Amino acid sequence: MYLVDQYTVSLLHFEDGLKDECGNIWTAKGSVNEDTTNKISGNSSLYIPANTYLTSINDNYAFRSGDFTIDFWVYSASPNSCYFTSSSVIGATLGIAVCGDASWVGNNSVLEGRLPLPTIPANTWTHISVVRYQGEFILFIQGKLISKAKMSGAISSKQFAIGARYNDGQYPNTQPMFIDEFRISNVARWTTDFTPPNTTTETIDAPTNLTASAGDSQVSLSWNAVEGAASYNVKRSTTAGGPYTTIATNVPSTSYLDATVTNGTMYYYVVTAVDSSGNESANSNEASATPNKSTPVPTGQELLRITMSDSSEREYKVSKVVVEDFIKWFNRNNITIGNTSYMFNKAIDGGKEYLSCSKIISFETISTKEQIFLRITMSDSSEREYKVSVAELDNFIKLFKYTTEAAANFYVFDKDIDSSKEYLFFEKIISFEVMELTK
Hints:
5% helix; 8-stranded antiparallel sheet; 7-stranded antiparallel sheet
């Protein structure tokens, strides 16, 4: 399977319906459907019956005078009679057309760089690519350069169709066909013969034992390594069983921290392995987690747990001053002197709660967790360990989650041993874990 890079304008795997990996919206005109029995890559392709097509609109489809590549796999009983894809339009706007008889740039009255297609084998998956490179229009079939022509027209059409001769669906395809791994790029990906992607046998195993652990606004994932894997892709859904959205590619290790989640929402994850040839495995087992905001005891406070005569318990997060005052009140010599109940402010609703001294059986205090042990795993598999305050931990997590918006792309830690400073670049951090330490 292809992966999105900086040159990808549109990419459809046809694994999750009409989902475009670049976020474009494709609309089906007619009954198109995924087919799991006939495909070149992954789990399925798109079957396009006669007189049906897809359309999409995006400003990035207008390449003007720049380079571009349109490539895809096609399978049909009559491929030379098919209308594969087009941004060409009836009117003044210039677009690209890739059909079974020829490819060109133009509209219904202007034709430039027409390249006839040779005979395409019937009922065989065939890779087709058209490229513009430095003013030349180039046609490739199965990675072989077939022909080229001068082409300097400015592509201004912002609409693409799959399965039609013109971008608005006029002259829809009259022949049923299968399309897979459809990609539009704003670069000339090939200028000479090449080996079409996805022509190797996909044998890489799927990851196993995927686990998900929830934290505050984050979910930590880990899984077993796959032999032959060069990297991993992480996919997520808010529905059990998918469809899944790819949230991370080229993950080099067997762990990943998802810091783009919302507390209280259940997330479902799968992971795939990718080998050095770009072949992607099937999905791993599904793992789920619901991130939730933890409520640590603030610095300078303690947890006071009180057991009542009915065996119920009350818990309050209070200052050390309040703890000392409560103990003094509870231990006074004559319980009939002064207040016979103690009042606590409730954190949840701002109300007040009064506990009768005669009903208290016991109580315990739990010390404030003022320091945090932070262990960070780097991209070279080394680990860094720091003792930090709650406030410093919160600041680190905030900046880690929003590195693209942060003023700096690194974080500075003060080293305990020699009071020097250590700078960690966010892009080199694979994961981190947090453990509370008692002061």
